[in-house]
Design a protein that fits this description.
Growth Hormone, Chain: A, globular, single chain
Length: 390
């Protein structure tokens, strides 16, 4: 049985790993304009590349969960951190050659290795923190978001000062260093899992899982589009300077820190379904505020607070609910499927919204994202209502 100190140390390192895992994918948005200029591509092309990378990020999760069950969570996460970090160095070649193919290769390889993280970490937390799964999921999210919160601003500064490839390499180097710390800190602490493992086919037989999966697709469809195009939307449609657009994205993530904690605590107390209905409503209101409030500064401010709190509060509630509807030996497979539906299928919105932005403008693209958020709100009322048995 792990001591509280050991558990806290593991959770802290998982939070750091979570942070860098996401940091690698929030470098592009604040640097989107110089990247497109350097590579000579349109929004739809860069959106298509982001979609491919996100599909790989989602599909890889189907491997990550079962791999964590087979070789151990620590080994899987160490591999994930080290190889995703090393993949960012290919961006240096993309910067010199100014080729979209090299940029795409770097992003896809980074996504492939990074994809192993989430199902492995979520499965580990759902098993190791009985009695407070949602709260721990929230704290894990807080750790991740706290680190990510500064990434857009730091990435913009590094990219503007030294060139956009350096921003990727800087965060990739930190990933490799964390992999070494992670491996050293957990030597000989992982026991072999002797429980018979479930498969993805077995997981898909869980009836209550299907509505959660459809709900998760809707979330992914608005999330991935907002993630990629929000800073560019502020620059092109709200006439905000690039550095302030990067700071605005940082503030969304900052609000998300509080959202993760609130969502985890609330889900343990009142149940995940109520939290998910409330957060889905908050996301809808945030997107329509951004689009419809005529005073741009007010609309952006409302979006930052509401979207940051609501979107990030939903994560621990949904992750814990997913664990409650699946058996112990199916967790890795279930979380793998879950991550695939959100980051894999959901990533299609990056290409679609980029295409719409090229033809009709970014306002039209964000109305589409708001429609996806409205679908998620309607689906939230159909979710199962389960609480953790303590």
């Amino acid at each position: 049985m792990q001591s509280n100190s050991r558990k806290n140390t593991r959770l802290a390192l998982l939070g750091a790993a979570h942070s860098f895992n996401h940091s690698l994918f929030v470098i592009t948005p604040p640097l989107l304009t110089p990247i497109m200029s350097s590579l000579g591509v349109t929004k739809s092309v860069i959106g298509g590349v982001a979609t491919l990378a996100s599909l790989v990020y989602g599909v890889g999760a189907l491997v990550g969960g079962p791999l964590g069950d087979r070789i151990g969570e620590v080994k899987t996460i160490t591999i994930c951190l080290a190889l995703s970090g090393l993949s960012t160095f290919i961006m240096l070649i993309a910067g010199f050659t100014e080729g979209i193919a090299i940029y795409a290769l770097a992003l896809i390889l980074t996504a492939m290795w990074a994809s192993l993280y989430h199902p492995t970490a979520n499965s580990l937390i759902s098993k190791a923190f009985k009695g407070r799964v949602a709260e721990t999921m929230g704290l894990h999210g807080v750790g991740g978001t706290l680190g990510v919160v500064f990434t857009p601003t730091i990435a913009w500064f590094l990219g503007a000062t030294f060139g956009w490839p350096i921003a990727f390499v800087a965060f990739g180097t930190l990933c490799v260093l964390l992999a070494l710390i992670f491996a050293k800190s957990f030597q000989k602490t992982e026991s072999k899992n002797t429980t018979e493992r479930g498969t993805i086919i077995d997981a898909l037989k869980i009836r209550e899982l299907w509505i959660l999966l459809i709900f998760n697709v809707a979330i992914g469809l608005f999330m991935k589009g907002v993630e990629l195009f929000f800073p560019t939307y502020l620059q092109d449609n709200r006439f905000i300077a690039p550095e302030w657009a990067a700071i605005a994205y940082t503030l969304v993530l900052a609000a998300g820190v509080a959202g993760q904690w609130i969502g985890g605590k609330s889900a343990d107390k009142i149940g995940s379904k109520k939290v998910l209905i409330a957060t889905s409503l908050g996301v809808c209101l945030s997107l329509f505020s951004l689009l419809l409030i005529p005073i741009y500064v007010v609309g952006v401010a409302v979006f930052i607070v509401l979207y940051g709190l609501s979107f990030y509060a939903h994560q621990p509630a949904l992750n814990s609910l997913t664990g409650f509807v699946s058996s112990h030996n199916q967790r890795g497979a279930v979380y793998g499927i879950f991550f695939f539906t959100s980051f894999g299928i959901g990533s299609l919105s990056q290409f679609v919204s980029g295409y719409m932005a090229d033809i009709y403008g970014l306002d039209a693209a964000f109305y589409l994202l708001a429609a996806f958020a409205l679908i998620a709100l309607l689906l939230s009322f159909k979710l199962p209502e389960k609480r953790e048995s303590k």
